[in-house]
Amino acid sequence: MKILKNAVAGTLESSDLFIQIEPDDTELVLEIDSVVANQYMDAIRGAVLETLKEFDVSTGKIFIKDKGALDCVIRARMETALKRGGVEKE
Amino acid sequence: MLFLPGNTPNMLINGDTLGADTAIFDLEDAVSPDEKDAARILVRNALKYQDFSGCEVVVRINPTDTEFWKKDLDAVIPLKPDMIMPTKVSGGGMIREVSAYIGQVEERSGIEKGSVKILPLIETALGVEKAFDIASSDGRVAGLFLGGEDFTADMHCKRTKEGQEIFYARTRLVCAARACGIEAYDTPFTDVEDMEGLRTDTEFAKSLGFAGKAVISPRHVDIVNEVFSPTEAEIEYAHDVMDAIEEGKRQGKGVISLRGKMIDAPIVKRARQVLEMEQAIYGGGCR
Amino acid sequence: MSKLMGTIREAIEKAGLKDGMTISFHHHMRNGDYVLNMVLEEAAAMGIRDLTINASSIFDIHEPLIEHIKNGVVTQIECNYMGGRVGKAISQGIMEKPVIFRTHGGRAGDMERGASRIDIAFLAAPCADPMGNLSGKYGPSACGSLGYAFSDAMYAKKVVAVTDHLVPYPLQDASIDEGYVDYVVQTEQIGDPARIVSGTTKITRDPVGLRIAGLAAQVVKHSGYLKNGFSFQTGAGGASLAVAKYVEEMMEKDHIKGSFCMGGITGYMVDMANKGFFDTILDVQCFDLKAIESIRENPKHREISAMRYASPAAKSAAVDSLDVVILGATQVDLDFNVNVHTDSNGYIMGGSGGHSDTAAGSKLAIIVAPLIRARLPLIVDRVLCKSTPGETVDVIVTQRGIAVNPRQKELRDRLIKAGLPVRDIRELKKMAEEIAGVPRPVEMGDKVVAQVLYRDGTLLDTIKNVAEI
User: Domains (ranges, CATH) in chain C?
Assistant: First the structure.
């Protein structure tokens, strides 16, 4: 599956994150800015990549501003963004 | 019973810590139309990954005349919330429709049929008049819930702190619920600052027979719990009643008396209720 | 004789400011303070270098300090609290000498003992007369209490008062009297009133904060201290203030009359005293307009110095008579040590203030904080900075449970008996990590950027620089 259009999800409130996604046919661009980067960057990246895998998305641009969201929130916002971007689960 | 906005991560994550016996995750009024999808997924994930075992979970879904309610159920039913709260319920038909769809999702996701209960939110004049019809419409209905704000709007009257305007709705709802052997829950008190008003309103609701009351602020939780909790004296008396019955059984007495008063069936029933409440409130719950 | 100087520069010259001296400031102008910046700007213009700044607190408004540090005008800072702007620069290692952090009581005590010497104190004075009688209660930049300025006035070799509200001699209701003051400078404005105090201080609306406050109030209730004669201190933060509200409700219900409330004072504490819940307000600092009005007009509302508040060098201080204090924390460790100096990444963004003074003096020190704050667990194996020693901390209250210091066994039993959710601190830590995941430990650099002195002047901990990733 591919991201078909630009989409956003989430907020910049504490414990949430804001995601912007854009289509890209050739590569995966993942930029994560997090207030808890020192402590949790691996976990955040993991949650994002797993959600992409679940939706079988391997290319696209993803920009994330994380305000200390838990994994389940990251997954929820990613799923929302992808669905809004035209990605449907198989 | 505490309402929590469905699209606010910080509230959902902490929903079980705020002292209420029941957390109501709201997908309806607290969520704007263009965030319905986001809230639905967020609530689903919160239920999936967070441990809410210390707390009863209710999900308030969108009205059945919107495009959202089936998607809401698709998302949350597989995670077995304790109850679903349909809104603006105005008759038994609506409940049967929701129940049937819950059944489909239960079956699809391999959950025992009937495990998710329904707590209808009654908030229209028609709904109040059909309270018994709603209460008796389906085996899933576990209680009736009064929504005073929308109800008074529908009645073209002003919602006041004294609540004279919802007196009829309250008594009718409690009576319909009790007639079907289920619970009735009272509408929230909406002035967050007025603790005395909250206490008076809650005491009044309890006196009418409500089993609980919704709150929109965590600051209201303690007072509502306190009012609905049996007092120490009541608990002690209930224990004495049960002890006396045990003692009577051992001695083979037919008629048992306590403190010079005969213990009859209603007294035993009341004592059992008090002890159940003691168990629910002090023996676990959200804390 | 005339103490009146035309400009700050003239006062600096008269007072004899030279390279290498220590100059001091109080922080009653808080984040609206102009005086520290004005004095340093003038000193820099005069070519003076190698100054030590001893300020009771450094706020974000003092950001120009960073340039003065880089230019060598300022080579050392001593303070009790440092806001995040300057704190971040310090944590990045811009300064050779480490910052010296004290407590509010410790700063006053060290001056009293002569362990901390001030060459010139520059005192922002919201109201002054030409002979240097000073008050914080009047004038456009009124701040109320001048509590933290007393020790500077008494122990600095030279004292310069800077005012924007000069009144004819004598200022009737002076807090600091002329006997201590060498020079008086009138300037247009000593601070930005909007940032000196808040209009009104409000109780938090955050449900988690309220829950924590509710539990903390239950701890107070069942601690045994909530009885006639009860004394209490709480911060101005939303959650701390909410504790006061719940405590008030309990006092009202049980007809309890307290003796005094103390600390940074808010309108909320003023109301509690006015309703008769406390006989006396001991005020070292005012946080809002209502507190200022009250300290001006209400005889029960007493201004106290930092020495009277918390000095360990004094024969006694008010903290020694305090029953219960409510405090915050950014991190707590398994030994109950509390960090209020750095954030979770190790950047300086706070300081003890009166934290460890009141924890040490009070009978019951309660920390209120969310178990998880933006994913970061409150409880860690080792705090990045030991601001307040665990021996003086009694209870940690979070929304998911209460940890009681094992030293307080009797209290623990009382709270359990009352049905409160008492947990082992390890259990709370585990609970948080199950929800948020285990955080990767933060690696600090090798350079010491700050020394944290305990209230008695001994070294409690050091803060290292933050290694940039």
Answer: 4-196 (3.40.1080.10), 207-444 (3.40.1080.10)
pLDDT at B196 over 80: yes
CA atoms of B24 and B286, how far apart (whole Å): 13
Ramachandran region, residue C114 (left: φ > 0; alpha: ψ -120 to 50; beta: rest): left
Contact with chain B for residue A44, Cβ under 8 A: no
Return the domain boundaries, chain B: 2-228, 232-282
Express as a percent the part of chain C with pLDDT over 70.
100
CA–CA min distance C48, chain B (Å): 51
Partners for A (CB, 8 Å, 3+ pairs)?
B, C
Residue B68 is given by DSSP the state: S
With beta carbons under 8 A apart, name residues in chain C contacting B193. none
CA distance B93 to C22: 82
> The whole model's pTM is what?
0.89
Mutation for C interface: A34, A38, A66, A67, most C CBs within 10 A: A38
Question: How do residues A37-69 score in pLDDT, each as one tens digit?
Answer: 999 999 999 999 999 999 999 999 999 999 999
Q: Is pLDDT above 90 for B13?
A: no
Instruction: Tell me what the pLDDT averaged over chain C comes to.
Output: 95
Round the CA-based radius of gyration of chain C to a whole number and report it: 22
- B226 part of contact set with chain C, CB < 8 Å: no
Q: Report the DSSP beta bridge partners of residue C159.
A: C121
- Return the axis-axis angle of helices B265-282 and B221-228, rounded to nearest 10°: 150
How far away is chain A from the Cα of C335, in angstroms, using its nearest Cα?
22
β-bridge mates for residue C183, sequence order: C160
Chain C within 8 Å of A69 (Cβ-Cβ)?
Answer: yes
Query: Rg of the Cα trace of chain A?
Result: 12
Q: What is the pLDDT of residues C137-168, one digit of tens each?
A: 999 999 999 999 999 999 999 999 999 999 99
Distance CA B263, CA C371 (A): 49
Mean pLDDT of C177-181: 97
Question: What is the model's pLDDT at position B262?
Answer: 81
How far is C446 from C323, CA to CA, in rounded Å?
40
Terminal C-alpha separation, chain A: 9
Task: Spell out which residues of chain C touch residue A68, defining contact as CB-CB under 8 Å.
Answer: 373-376
CA distance C281 to C261: 5
ipTM above 0.90, yes or no: yes
Chain B CB contacts of C208 under 8 Å are: 10, 14, 17-18
- Name the minimum distance, in Å, from the CA of B18 to any CA of chain C: 6
Q: Determine the Cα–Cα distance for residues C346 and C384; give it in Å rounded to an integer.
A: 6
Fold of B2-228: TIM Barrel (3.20.20)
CATH architecture of A7-84: 2-Layer Sandwich (3.30)
- C-alpha C254/C-alpha C317 separation (Å) is 29
Contacts of C436 in chain A (CB under 8 A): 40, 70
Do the Cβ atoms of B19 and C419 come within 8 Å?
A: no
Question: Is residue A65 less than 8 Å (CB to CB) from chain B?
Answer: no
Q: Do C442 and A38 touch (CB under 8 A)?
A: yes
The CA distance from C220 to C227, in Å, is 10
